[in-house]
Amino acid sequence: MISGPPAAGKGTQCEKIVKKFGLIHISAGDLLRAEVNAGTESGKLAAEYMNKGQLVPNQVVVDMVKHRLAQPDVQEQGWLLDGYPRSADQAAAILEEGIHPDVFLLIQVPDDSLIERVVGRRMDPQTGQIYHLTFKPPPRDTLDRLIQRSDDTEEKARARLEVHAGNVASVLDYYQDCLVEIDGSQDIKAVGSAIEDVLDTFQQSNSLEEFQHELAANTA
């Protein structure tokens, strides 16, 4: 499992993990939309709640996740569950179904750094390219047409960060045995290398206890 606040670079790291380790990337949000679009039984049930503006019950999403994790490609290659669970109820529900990660990666970045990343983002509406006024400056000839997403303001970004912090705090007790915190304030390559080191260590370990011992030794 992997979790991280908005603008922490989680999407980029998921791509790197999938490419390096061959895992199947599963996002609960993407899975929910796919089930609804495919018209499966779970998707139809979810759509009923969504059309009424209601939250989809935990058990419906849990059933979707459980079904996806049971598919042959996931059973063969392993899974990377992205941004789920987001509440203690969800964590308890999937644990009851026997779903527990080998490693829970938590990308940590100071809020002020995240705000700077978000507020400085700009998009070129002609190309879809994303720039950052400080970290990835756009070409001068595109400046006049760049736009800022409506939710890339400091006020909205802080609200999203507050929601994320609450979500993470509610689930961590379920994953203390496999939790690894990653310093996401480093550059992208350094974050990727740190994650690879953790997963390489796990693959080379003979047990969870040995993995935890090696991680403690490496971070001491």
From TrEMBL:
Keywords: Kinase, Nucleotide-binding, Transferase. Belongs to the adenylate kinase family. Transmembrane segments: none annotated. One of its GO terms (molecular function) is ATP binding. The keyword Lipid metabolism does not apply. It comes from Apatococcus fuscideae. Pfam families: ADK (PF00406). This is adenylate kinase. It catalyses: AMP + ATP = 2 ADP. Its EC number is 2.7.4.3. InterPro entries: Adenyl_kin_sub, Adenylat/UMP-CMP_kin, Adenylat_kinase_CS, P-loop_NTPase.
